[in-house]
Design goal:
Elements (H helix, E strand, L loop, with lengths): L6 E10 L5 H11 L3 E6 L5 E7 L1 H11 L7 E10 L11 E3 L1
Parallel strand pairs: 2-5
Antiparallel strand pairs: 1-3, 1-4, 2-3
Amino acid sequence: MTRSMTQCYKATVTGKVQGVGFRRATQAQALLRQITGHAINLADGRVEVVMYGRREALAELCEWLWQGPPAAHVTHVEFESRDVPAEERAPADFTTR
């Protein structure tokens, strides 16, 4: 993927999103769309998702984040577009921590 095609978004997901398989489900959705990045639990109960990929694929994942897996109850998602500096490389995979 060339740098000009790669976009980066950061999402912070609020609601019942920890202990319900949210990170793993997000990883599966990201991999289906060839998106790299990570999903991590935050200490305050939210989940942070940083994603790199094509704009269309990111838009699809961003829409999915409002739903999440069946056991989740998402109440809010905050998005932030991030510039990808020329020297920064997108991660090779999508990980959970």
